[in-house]
Amino acid sequence: MLREKILQAAGYTVFTTQNPEEAGFRIRNCECGVLLLCYSVEDQWQRILINDFREHCPQGRIVAITNHPVAETPKEVDELVYGVEGPEALMQAVRPKAA
User: Quick one: 2-94 is in which CATH superfamily?
Assistant: First the structure.
């Protein structure tokens, strides 16, 4: 909920769900700029959502939230945010990188 409020305050339109099937439906049928994946999403559903997002929103960014520090960002995602890093880290992760 806090992440949703932070993104909305920054001007993003945010869709939030705890239902992976609903998230997949939205990804396949809407224009999505960022997929924010929380560590609480089961691995199988993370893979499905990542694949759907890459297929249907190829210009979008995938940001994964972790519950522990990780030394290297997995290749499946564009950015990794350690959940306690705060709003600045989240905002930096969702913004497109300059070419």
Answer: Response regulator (3.40.50.2300)
